[in-house]
Structures
1.
Amino acid sequence: MKVALIGNPNTGKTSLFNQLTGLNQKVGNYPGITVSKKTGSCKLSATESATIIDLPGTYSITPSSLDEAIVLDTLVDTKNKAYPDVIVVVSEVENLKRNLYLFSQVKDLEIPTILAINMADQLENKGISIDVAMLEKELNTKIVLISAKKNQGIDELKKTMLDYQNISTKPLEEISKRMDTDFFEKLKNENPKIALYTLWLLISQEFLPEKTKNEYQSLIDSYKSEKAKIKKLQQKETIYRYQFINDILKKTYVVDKSKASGIQAKLDRILTHKIFGYVIFFLILALIFQSIFSWSSIPMDFIDAQTTNLADFITSKLPAGAFTDLITQGVIPGIGGIVIFIPQIVILFLFVSLLEETGYMSRVVFLMDKIMRKFGMSGKSVVPLISGTACAIPAIMAARNINGWKERLITILVTPFTTCSARLPVYTIIIALIIPETEILGIFNLQGFVLLGMYLLGFLMAIVSAYILHKIMKVKAKNFFIIEMPTYKLPLLKNIGITVIEKTKAFVWGAGKIILAISIVLWFLASNGGEKFKNAEQIVKDKYANTHVSEEQLQNDISSYQLEHSYIGQMGKAIEPVIRPLGYDWKIGIALISSFAAREVFVGTLATIYSIGNDTDDETTIKERMNAEINPDTGKKRFDFPTGMSLLVFYAFAMQCMGTLAIVKKETNSWKWPLVQLFGMGAIAYVSSFLVYTFLS
Amino acid sequence: MTIEQLHIGEKGIIKDFLFSEVPLSLLEMGCLPGKVVEMIQVAPLKDPIYIRVNGSDIAIRTETAKQIEITKL
């Protein structure tokens, strides 16, 4: 059997889902839209098990966007694979009134519906008493009091689900009768086989799934002319539903006001305070950044070392040849390049989900909304922009819950400017080359100061470009902002754990595939070439015919010569005229192209080009070698101050990440926006680097 | 007067909506004519505002609040 869970956000619906299914859950995507689809299996009794469908949290089943239409689609289309045998409406003790609004809509669909009231363990605490028997009678349903957190009432809920055939499917008819008896009777008589409320939803909704729309086209068309009347009736419906609920709650729900703790109000006074509110928020931000950078360096170094070890191990075990090279130089570094980001992503989402679970994130949205709006974004854009400092890919996925299309799009477009962790190795090595290691004012390290400057530069560029986009983009779409300020809650570790696993999985499967594919393509381009590539060994040996060199030096020189004459080397040479004005040569060109897999590949590629072998761990070696590289045109150092600065600016602004482009394509459902990013950010990077280089040299 | 003119802690009763088309999601959150609305907090820069209405704690932007007429209590 199939059970659908539906409920308002912040009612603990996800906790219940986790409690019922444990780790037996699957997260998928609905085709074409960005809401994720969560299903899981649950044993209801010794013989029966159920598929549980966790529908996205919502306040109403009437959708205000195509993404939200998924709830309606599941509950209205009887042929839908997820069409449930029984629905559980998850509500909670404090916001019962608003929760019952959704319940009343669901109940009218004439599917067996159970009302689960969560957080029942806190009834006494909050001075709330509910007359469950009376409420069951009034709503004509089965009610189960549960506490998903304390695992109370779950068995009873399972029993009730098994017994679903005994739950009345009679709608709360009164509402339609009170609204407009004639209108609704006519509608019902024309289509006696379909639930009245379903009919009403079909004719009144703007956002219907394409399939449903086609199926009921004639019905929908026949009511097109009554649009104005339907709009009025919709408002009436909401008012009547609330009246109906208020009448029932008066008889069944009592709150003893003297028991209210007032903690919520006190916390709100501090956390949303004009000054302390921001101070606390920035302290939390500082903590997040600190942990992303310091805590994650240990596992990241470990992963880095293990990837190299694994590649070495396989090289020593497998016979030499193209296949071994593919594994050790294409596949393993590719996978390593994905896995290396996991620690930072885990830490980031640990914080983000902690802040969301406690209810604090809504306060941040509240504090930041007006400021962000000046730049065409929303208070909800804060999460993506923070997440972008780890990796733009999960950050862009986090933009899903921004309601306005324009606000969401601007957030997606500017997020890649924030300094992601892949830029860090590039910045570190260039800064080490061009900025002296001096102290300023006795405390600040100048190199560290420049690095901080790079972060600010990225953030500033994000804000400036958002402002420009805000001014030029003309989107007339109605955008209505309303957020719930949930009560503060102690976070549930299980929920946080599951969220972190889910997000990390989404990153590994989503972006991982692309990074891996690009790594393999780049490996192919770097390990194949024309005549000179094939004869590299002979050519280099001939060159050294009369001089003595160590075997290691010889091998490194061969690798370097091969890379120069490989396909990617030819590509680097081909783009040299274009990048010369920025102070780069074809060698840097190769590194720029390789960066499309992930920016940090820059360092490894340069190491190969400068023939220091594969031992890229040795930062001093590569630094010394880069420092010794001479620009034949000027006779000065290749990585001098102007070129270094130009490179820093280029890496700060250019869109060099295939993974991000693919995610933007998926999230915006069009190639237009990733191309705008690729060329827009590319142009900004090119012009800025050109100006920096010209001005400094 | 309209909602955003309330000071923190003050209450009013919703009288009427001035929107040309009332956003359904506002109604669905319980913000309905005849209901008591209390100002809980105003964000810096006076926008958005944090209100309690019909048992729900919600934040709305000032541009929306300006469309909701109230009688002060």
2.
Amino acid sequence: MEAFFSSLVSVAFHGVAYGMILYVISVGLSVTMGLMGFTNLAHGVFAMAGGYILCSALARFQMPFPLALALSFVLVAAASVVLERLLYSRLYGAAELEQVLFTIGLIFMSVAVARLVFGTLQQPVLLPEYLKGPFTILGREFPVYRVFLIVFSATMIAGLWLGVERTLWGAMVRAAVDNRAMAQSIGINTRRLFTITFAVGSGLAGLGGALGAEIVAIQPTYPFEQLVYFLIVVSVGGLGNLRGPFVAALLIGITDTACKYWVPQFGAFFIYAATICLLLWRPAGLFGSRA
Amino acid sequence: MSAVLETRDLCKRFGALTVADNINFRLEAGAKHALIGPNGAGKTTFVNLLTGLLAPSSGTVMLGGQDVTLLPQSGRVKRGLGRTFQINTLFREMSVLDNVALGIAERLGLSGKLWRPAGHYAAVREEAMSLLDSLAIADQAARRVSDLPYGQQRLVEIAIALGLKPTVLLLDEPAAGVPSLETERILNALDSLPKTIAILIIEHDMDLVFRFADRITVLVQGEVLCEGAPQEIANDARVQSVYLGERRA
Amino acid sequence: MKHPVGYGADARLRWTEWLPWVVAVAVFFLLPEYLSLGARVLTYILFALSLDLVLGYAGIVTLGHAAFFGTGAYVAGILAAKLGVTDPVIQLLASAAAAALLGLATGAVILRTHGLAQLMLTLAVAAVCLEIANKATALTGGADGLSGVSVAAIFGQFKFDMYGRTAYLWCLLLVFTGWWLVRRVIYSPFGATLTGIRENSVRMHSIGAPVYQRLLTVYTLSAAMAGTAGALLTQTNQFVGLNVLGFEPSGEILVMLILGGVGRLYGAFVGPLLFLIAQDYLARQFPEYWYFGIGLILVLVVLFARGGILGISDAIIARMGRKS
């Protein structure tokens, strides 16, 4: 009984950590898909890029961890602006198939580049000493890094939610998700709004990829392998909102961890099966208003 | 006379917004009925409730004396309900002929056939051609519909509905954005239909409404304000204040 | 050429439509050392044809078509390696039936949804299949793959020889049959209905078409074809690996079809041919550049050449016609 309780706590802890990562990565995808109606399958590329930036900054350039983390956000956000202006914006309003193909193309290219630059091996994450080792809460030991990860992510998510609730940018995003034509007619520059939102969403994905590099291995096939998970979070959570993907990400993080812990022989089977059932029940997701 | 299409206490709500509020409506066989009302009165929503594109929050829709509230769109079409859309809803990359032929084949029960080429079914093609001829666009039959000028696309929109040989025809602003020549063609085509067909037309062009309709229903904020012969409606003080008055202003 | 289909179309064969078959037979006699590559190309042509039916004609965007291809491949493999059913015709029929059943069952769910949910579900179905194949090691061999696939002589007469001659002709026969079937379907009233659904499903509903049933029919048919293609792959390779399932083969067949030209019937011929020949030369030597190339081609096709290679050739022919 004691052993079961102990594993329960362990699964919940690691599940939440994984869920947080999933959310930080996927939230940008949910907002940009809801805002621009763009099916961006290449979102995982930004997360992978963030992971590579962090790993390289730590291993090759011996940067302090906070700086490396900040860099993974800033560089990815900046690169995404270029991509958005040059390429993505050409396909706003295009057919779903074209967006799907275009972003799959981007995935293929980024996978190739990652292999060319970093090789096929998984990147090691050289954590600083203060983030290593165990951390004792109520007589139980937890890895310090994961505690940090949960606390840091939670703080950032709270900041993001406040930002969307309280700032002008957030108000504009919410207005444009609800009714783009109306938002335009009251003078919101939706073009700039798209670019900024895309950059923030991609930057967050970069940050999430960096934070989670220790959990989700950074390797060239990352955008392909993780795509299903990001899409599950977004489609189960519902497009264009912040709460839905959060609940979905935590659910998936915990379920996935639990399945891998208790019934590893089934792999990710339950996650997929549950997703299929859930989308049958609510095609627009748990909190989505639109199909 | 008996009603071919009837609604009883029909309601539709989107959250707190009520867009159809207890609508009781009767369309008699052979009637030429117009539905008018200011923008946002819920006219198109009402048509969508009739065709089954939207499910009502409560109330019933009766078609030919039978309750069709739970029937999907295809079932209602099979029972004689045809419609056109306010915004052109066409098969843009297909030819004008195919746009019309698809509906005809569906009516004749041929469209599930997957062996012989479609061109083999000459009866479908001939019926489509004669229909296009009656709307004076037979010469455009082979063109891609998206290459046609807007007014002619409106005619295709109507031709598709007529190809279903409906007993009840719902026309959602058929003449919106159409040059007057094509408006005449539309009216002529409607005049030449069998007199037993009941037509419900939604229209903003009051000239057209008064020329065409022998009965008018006024819808305001999802509710039926009043119903009557054209002269009664034109003289109704409430209608003038909420609708005609607003338009003159 | 993109041939018009529908009620005003001429469904007779044009002389150009014989070209692929003339080329295929010529390869058999003139390039005997390429027959195994040829059989592979033919297999993927059949797979691409099945995808063109759902994606190009009915407009269902799927990221999981390999679910059916892989199911067909594994059913044939398990029959041959585990159950001792070595007759190739029975293997093909069983594979097609199993894939069709999977198509019917999953299509019944997937086709009720739209947009992101639909995309997600196609991906999830393929992922579930991969997961099952990966974990059911007793049947599938898991990550090691399924070897020991034995295939008896076709109709008791034609043995699979080491030069791949029988395999090539067997694939050719099945591609020809598949092409002929797809061609009949797309020119038929049913095919016209599919195009109508792709163009405007709202209107399709309003003319009384049972849209869902039509989509389910074509989805099942396409799944059966993809399953047949998978079984062909098993028979010619005498091995099944996990790489027939999941997102990557689904993505690759999509790339092949897009490259050739989607919704054009013969795009499904041109795309796999070029893709697999290029892969044969490039992928082993320069895997990084190969993947980069696929990605670049996809991006370029979407941005500049939405009809694929056949679309480009159409445009060139049209321009030359205007000049002369």
